[in-house]
Amino acid sequence: MSASISPKVQISSHPLVLSKLTQLRLHDLPAKDFREGVRAIGSMLVYEASRHLPLADVPDLQSPVASFTGQTIPLRIGLSPILRAGIGLTDAALEMFPDATVLHLGLFRDKVSLQAIEYYSKLPTEVTADVVFLLDPLIATGGTAIAALHMLTEWGLKPSQIKIISVLGSKQGVEHVTEEFPDVEIFIGAVDDTLTEKGYISPGLGDAEDLTSCGGY
């Protein structure tokens, strides 16, 4: 890991994440296995990203044996998948937060300029979440993640209320995001050093969109 990468970037060292990511990199991996791998890594990253969420006591509960005081997360959780990139991570996040609000953002990367272009936003008039997990499987140039962050902050969220969940990124792209939004935490499976002239992470995962119908940039 480069020393220049922000401490807000949490690169996973978990053996399960790294072994799944190795499988995802294989050029001949069937699409079904690719989708399942993305979902598995997403579950583990959301778990890690949730580690420091606050808890509140819930008194006067009853187990089969005795009364007890339980705990709950006293926050409204939002999940913001980038269409179509984040769909592969949405189910994994919903398993952790079944009552979360899903906030779809439609963005795609122009193949020539490599700039992110917005085409859809499903954000309510009022802010409906205290913490939002931005689901973007691949951070290549970082342009799409940055555009999505602008959409969420213009909606009314503070950058510190947003956590990015990403399977893989390029060093250049991740640094681009942290330079623009230094208070946003990023939870990511791995960071590769190289970004090609065409905007692909190397060694990367290839064209994830072909395999999952959801590529991120």
TrEMBL record:
<feature type="domain" description="Phosphoribosyltransferase">
    <location>
        <begin position="12"/>
        <end position="210"/>
    </location>
</feature>
<keyword id="KW-0547">Nucleotide-binding</keyword>
<keyword id="KW-0328">Glycosyltransferase</keyword>
<keyword id="KW-0342">GTP-binding</keyword>
<comment type="pathway">
    <text>Pyrimidine metabolism; UMP biosynthesis via salvage pathway; UMP from uracil: step 1/1.</text>
</comment>
<dbReference type="InterPro" id="IPR050054">
    <property type="entry name" value="UPRTase/APRTase"/>
</dbReference>
<protein>
    <recommendedName>
        <fullName>uracil phosphoribosyltransferase</fullName>
        <ecNumber>2.4.2.9</ecNumber>
    </recommendedName>
</protein>
<comment type="similarity">
    <text>Belongs to the UPRTase family.</text>
</comment>
<dbReference type="GO" id="GO:0005525">
    <property type="term" value="F:GTP binding"/>
</dbReference>
<dbReference type="InterPro" id="IPR029057">
    <property type="entry name" value="PRTase-like"/>
</dbReference>
<dbReference type="Pfam" id="PF14681">
    <property type="entry name" value="UPRTase"/>
</dbReference>
<keyword id="KW-0021">Allosteric enzyme</keyword>
<dbReference type="GO" id="GO:0004845">
    <property type="term" value="F:uracil phosphoribosyltransferase activity"/>
</dbReference>
<keyword id="KW-0808">Transferase</keyword>
<dbReference type="InterPro" id="IPR000836">
    <property type="entry name" value="PRTase_dom"/>
</dbReference>
